Amino acid sequence: MLIRDMSKADLEEVYQIEKESFQDPWSKNSFIEAISNKNNIYLVAIVDGLIAGYCGCYGVAGEGYIYNVAVGKNYRRQGIGFRLLQDLIEAAKSRGIESLTLEVRKSNLPAIKLYKKLGFVEAGIRKDFYTKPLEDAIIMWKTSIH
């Protein structure tokens, strides 16, 4: 597995994973804007020449906000999400980010387990944060990534 920065050439494959993973997916233009912003870190995982997953965060003033984490259906439960997030945390550290936060659907138990394994802790609830279907989000923080 190779993990590297996301590029515009990756967008078609990334968008396919986004559509299969989320009922309210980001647009291709949202990804273009995200990877064009110097405050963002976006990574892809390559397996056998194909994009297996991606993740990204925004960082400013020492804090990072993880926007996206997704692994293609055929690649789940193989440690790809874990590796992507490990590399994202390392990239965030190198940019001076000291803590990371994210929201996750309350029902997404595999993701919650993954984030806890990486040292994130539950810090609160955002009521009705998600749509399609409407659901609360759990706010999670990793307060010291160093």
Automatic annotation (TrEMBL):
<dbReference type="GO" id="GO:0008999">
    <property type="term" value="F:protein-N-terminal-alanine acetyltransferase activity"/>
</dbReference>
<dbReference type="InterPro" id="IPR016181">
    <property type="entry name" value="Acyl_CoA_acyltransferase"/>
</dbReference>
<dbReference type="InterPro" id="IPR050276">
    <property type="entry name" value="MshD_Acetyltransferase"/>
</dbReference>
<dbReference type="GO" id="GO:0005737">
    <property type="term" value="C:cytoplasm"/>
</dbReference>
<dbReference type="Pfam" id="PF00583">
    <property type="entry name" value="Acetyltransf_1"/>
</dbReference>
<keyword id="KW-0963">Cytoplasm</keyword>
<comment type="similarity">
    <text>Belongs to the acetyltransferase family. RimI subfamily.</text>
</comment>
<comment type="function">
    <text>Acetylates the N-terminal alanine of ribosomal protein bS18.</text>
</comment>
<dbReference type="InterPro" id="IPR000182">
    <property type="entry name" value="GNAT_dom"/>
</dbReference>
<protein>
    <recommendedName>
        <fullName>[Ribosomal protein bS18]-alanine N-acetyltransferase</fullName>
        <ecNumber>2.3.1.266</ecNumber>
    </recommendedName>
</protein>
<feature type="domain" description="N-acetyltransferase">
    <location>
        <begin position="1"/>
        <end position="145"/>
    </location>
</feature>
<dbReference type="InterPro" id="IPR006464">
    <property type="entry name" value="AcTrfase_RimI/Ard1"/>
</dbReference>
